[in-house]
């Protein structure tokens, strides 16, 4: 594989998104709970984000995903990350010190803070 043989293109189909999920499992050996799930890949383009795949022939060898952090002028994702970081900082910790379960719990708490 060389840079010249790679093709970058937007992933748009369920089969391409499934390839992204499978690549995570193959490369990192993540459990299902640690993977970016298929539904997030499918959702990204629908909300203004994108999934870009690096393909060598029919084989996905890499991908990048971007999801916008705002909707209707609200910076939800950034605000949620700041909440998570602030709560950990109060404990004298940083995100790299927290487990995925802890971060998910804080994320859910930040969402509850946003509700009227």
Task: Outline the structure in words.
The longest helix is centred in the N-terminal third of the chain and has 15 residues, at 14-28. Helix 3 (76-90) crosses helix 4. The N and C termini lie far apart (52 Å). Strands 1-2-3 form a three-stranded antiparallel β-sheet, with helices on one face. It is built from four helices and three strands. 44% of the residues lie in helices and 16% in strands. It has helices at residues 14-28, 38-43, 76-90, 100-114, and strands at 7-10, 50-56, 59-66. The chain has two domains: 3-66, Aminopeptidase (3-Layer(aba) Sandwich); 76-114, no CATH class. The chain is of the alpha+beta class. The mean pLDDT is 88.
Give a concise summary.
Helix 3 (about 75-90) crosses helix 4. About 45% of the residues lie in helices and about 15% in strands. The protein has helices at about 15-30, 40-45, 75-90, 100-115, and strands at about 5-10, 50-55, 60-65.
What number of domains?
Answer: 2
Strand content: 15-25%
Helix segment count? Answer: 4
In this structure, how is the largest beta sheet organized?
A: 3 strands, antiparallel
Inertia-based shape: globular
**Order of strands in the sheet with the most strands?**
1-2-3
Q: SSE order in H/E notation?
A: EHHEEHH
What layout of secondary structure does this protein have?
Blueprint: E1 7-10, H1 14-28, H2 38-43, E2 50-56, E3 59-66, H3 76-90, H4 100-114
Antiparallel strand pairs: 1-2, 2-3
Search tags:
116 residues, alpha+beta, Aminopeptidase, 2 domains, 3-stranded antiparallel sheet, 4 helices, 3 strands
